[in-house]
Amino acid sequence: MGKKGIAKKIIIVYVLNILRLTTKERPINQTVICDYLNEIGISCDRKTVGRNVEYLREMGHPIVKLPNVGMYFDHERFEADERNFIL
């Protein structure tokens, strides 16, 4: 099965992996994430990315939204022992 056949099931994983590469100094917005996913053959729209970001936040992922800028993964939210456990 190609990427397009499984894309709807795994978009959230792609979104999380992209967000993990961001920082407060280098945020990203939904449109950029959407454009990247479409470039690699995963069909989605900006609203789909937004819904997935909200699901990730509800699950406890430290995603911070900056009005009119974008969002980033807050790596500093975890203590050192928590980061080590997760890794």
Summarize the structure in words.
The protein is mainly α. The chain has helices at about 5-20, 30-40, 45-60, 80-85; strands at about 65, 70-75. It is globular. The termini are far apart. The mean pLDDT is about 85.
Termini separation: 30 Å
Indicate the percent of residues in helices.
40-55%
As a percent range, the share of strand residues is 5-15%
Secondary-structure element order, N to C: HHHEEH
Throw out a few tags for this protein.
4 helices; 87 residues; globular; 54% helix; mainly alpha
Concise description?
The protein has 87 residues and is mostly helical.
Secondary-structure blueprint of this entry?
Blueprint lengths: L2 H17 L10 H10 L6 H13 L4 E4 L3 E4 L6 H7 L1
